[in-house]
Specification:
Radius of gyration: 24 Å
Number of helices: 19
Number of domains: 4
Strand content: 15-25%
CATH class of the largest domain: Alpha Beta
Strand order of the largest sheet: 1-5-4-2-3-6
Largest sheet: 6 strands, mixed
């Protein structure tokens, strides 16, 4: 079928609201083409896209098609998988509730039990719930920190991990067999009967207790610390504030951003990686003379922090805050005698090497993965099976980390709790988290990291990204400034990389001084990402090196 054929089919057979939306663009061939020129791809991070009618948009029919493919995958596994069921969570976005209900309805129509949370919940709690209920899998309706016009769909396996590529491909194969998403049946709750189960609040309590158990110094005096917190209108509001309050912390909520608003109307940007996300929270912090500002993204798997240091509030990158957390956790566990001899830390190939140096100091091994916390979750599981190594920490540069493997995805509730504890610990020593970071630089060298995103939208966006990456692959730079490029790791062709990595369209350029650049297309957005990790003797030297690296590697962007 051509894109016009698909458009006409939807106009004839979709529900009334969808037809009205499509008829409104009847005279706009380019818009019709954008919406119908392809099927929305279920990538390694699931679905994520703009909400609207069409095969290349997020809507109830695309959700039904994806869920039907997932149902066929489950039915092919074993009958007991259908009874064990699937846990479904959702965030605060437009249509998230409706898409969660549609997901449950399609599963129920296929005889698969669906467990629904009664309202929005953080992504890490979904991972926890899958394991706690011994369900076969999980679905989260979320687009993380994307703008309000986006939504998405992520799949989890029985281990609480997002699906790894080998299993993801099997689901995609089933999705691709479906030719008409408009014909898929979805049951409402009354039709589904006991195949749709609303989860009790006791599950929240079980999750909160599991998070609080990770405290290393629960009896620290918390009376002197002030914490400003924003959930960015998202799912972190209740769990983060509940856990911190029960542990005795004074939390000042950014009230305007505690409302689960679909439009994110009181935040300039819900992404903790951006300065705009902190604007209102910093106003609160200055009025209350807070020690730290913490913010979680809408699905509460990422944590950002700004620290009051010498009268200024300084934002930490994900690499920096995770390095400080890692140092705190390993030092305290070593002092308490609870650091395992076979401890292992996991991070990704685009994560700063500062964490690796910290682990070397404590005798903890390090294993790298591709980008995506599913790979870290998979490694945790595999070492758990063999018993050869014990998980102590996992993190990505993108503001996500995991402390306790009761969850198999990044968990901002855990991270918020532990970061506040670390703040109190260092405060008792007359230090801030920035002081703790500077101590790490003094010991291991100065590390500066940066991430640059280049967006290529529209029909030819994917082609531009492919040409950009292929150009660097075929003609790699010889040096950046005066520093030579000594190695190119190509994770697609598997050239110059360690064994065990699945194929992925990622390039990593290693410089002779230990700095590196990684380039990869995003798995969920029309972006090409450039990751920079600079090693230097000072901040000034690092800035010069970073500028040189950007000029060379991004010249065609």
């Amino acid at each position: 079928m051509t894109y016009q054929d698909k458009y006409q089919h939807w106009c004839a057979h979709a529900d009334e609201a969808t037809r009205a939306e499509l008829l409104a663009i009847a005279d706009n061939d380019q818009e019709i083409k954008e919406r119908f020129f392809r099927e929305m791809e279920f990538g390694t991070g699931g679905l994520r896209g703009v909400i609207g009618a069409g095969t290349n948009r997020i809507n109830k029919y695309v959700i039904r098609k994806t869920t039907q493919g997932y149902a066929e995958y489950i039915k092919a596994v074993a009958p007991e998988a259908m009874e064990r069921g699937v846990v479904i969570a959702h965030d605060n976005r437009r249509f998230s509730i409706e898409f969660a209900e549609e997901t449950a309805g399609v599963l129920a129509a296929n005889g698969i039990r669906a467990y629904l949370f009664d309202s929005l919940r953080p992504t890490p709690e979904l991972s926890f719930a899958v394991r706690e209920l011994k369900a076969y899998g999980g679905v989260v309706i979320t687009a993380s920190h994307n703008p309000p016009e986006y939504n998405g769909y992520k799949l989890y396996d029985e281990r609480g991990c997002q699906l790894i590529p080998s299993e993801n491909d099997k689901v995609v194969a089933e999705i691709d067999k479906i030719t008409d998403p408009l014909s898929i049946r979805s049951l409402n709750r009354s039709e589904a009967g006991n195949l749709i189960v609303v989860l009790p609040e006791e599950l929240d309590e079980t999750y909160y207790r599991a998070v609080m158990k990770i405290a290393l110094q629960p009896n620290l005096d918390k009376s002197k610390i002030k914490i400003v917190y924003s959930p960015q209108h998202g799912t972190g509001n209740i769990p983060v504030r509940t856990v911190l309050k029960r542990l005795g912390y004074c939390v000042i909520p950014v009230e305007e951003q505690c409302v689960p608003d679909t439009e994110f109307s009181k935040t300039l940007n819900p992404n903790p990686e951006t300065a705009e996300a902190y604007s209102l929270a910093l106003e609160y912090a200055k009025r209350s003379d807070a020690d730290i500002v913490i913010t979680t993204d809408p699905d509460c798997d990422r944590l950002g922090v700004a620290v009051k240091h010498k009268g200024e509030y300084i934002r930490m990158t994900g690499n920096q805050s995770a390095a400080v957390l890692l140092e705190y956790i390993l030092s305290q566990r070593a002092a308490q005698g609870t650091l395992p001899e076979n401890g292992v830390m996991f991070n990704t190939i685009v994560t700063s090497d500062l964490g690796d140096r910290i682990c070397e100091n404590y005798g903890v091994s390090v294993e790298k993965t591709l980008t995506g916390f599913k790979f870290i979750g998979d490694k945790i599981y595999r070492h758990e099976l063999t018993g050869d190594k014990t998980f102590v920490f996992g993190y990505e540069e993108s503001y996500g980390c995991l402390i306790s493997d009761c969850v198999r995805d990044k968990d901002a509730v855990q991270a918020a709790m532990m970061l506040c504890e670390a703040t109190v610990h260092y405060q008792a020593k007359g230090m801030t988290l920035i002081d703790a970071l500077e101590n790490l630089y003094e010991k291991y060298g100065f590390f500066q990291d940066a991430l640059d995103n280049f967006t290529f939208k529209g029909l030819d966006g994917a082609e531009k990204i492919t040409a950009l990456v292929d150009g660097l692959r075929k003609d790699p730079p010889a040096k950046a400034g005066e520093v030579a490029v000594v190695k190119l790791e190509d994770y697609e062709s598997q050239i110059m990389i360690d064994a065990g990595f699945p194929k992925s369209n990622v390039l990593r350029f290693i410089l002779e001084d230990g700095s590196w650049v990684a380039v990869r297309p995003s798995g969920t957005e029309p972006k090409c990402k450039f990751y920079f990790s600079v090693v230097a003797n000072s901040r000034e030297e690092a800035s010069i090196k970073l500028q040189n690296m950007r000029q060379i590697f991004e010249k065609n962007c």
